[in-house]
Amino acid sequence: MLWRTRRRSNWVAVAYWVGITALLVYLVASGLTLSTSAVPLAGKLLYWALVFLAFYLVFSLEFLLRYRIEPDRVLVRGLLGWFAFRLHDIVRVEKASYKVRLRVAGISGPTLAFGRFNTDTHGLVRIYGRGGSGEGVILGLRDGAKVILTPEKQDDFIQLLREYNYPVVG
Length: 170
What we know:
Blueprint: E1 2-4, H1 10-29, H2 38-60, E2 66-70, E3 73-78, E4 81-86, E5 90-108, E6 113-119, E7 123-129, E8 133-141, E9 146-149, H3 154-163
Parallel strand pairs: 7-9
Antiparallel strand pairs: 1-2, 2-3, 3-4, 5-6, 5-8, 6-7, 8-9
């Protein structure tokens, strides 16, 4: 079953339309005419396209993140493809709150935390979900590592893990 992290934030739509509007206003204000040379115009368009893309990605990276639960593994789709956590590597599954203190390696923004982070109560963990803090499903792995996932419907997510005989605590 495929799980989304949560519905896309309204900030994504706002970022999109603000970026498009700002680009059009800039082009009109800079005197875009038919006699404008193509080289400076292409440079301006490329610059603003990159600015808009960076702004858009900061607010919309969460759409890349998906979870899939299968009988023998939990799959996480991230920025660079799928990551698998096999059933025999997972020794504990629990629902708990977390608060990120420090990003060790990875990326994070208002909508996504992806990588290794230091948290208040769980120490060094890998987070594939919402950034900052909140409730998450913690997978304790055989090698002692912890992974935090933040599905939209956490109780249903844990119930499905329980049905597939994952070691759910509580």
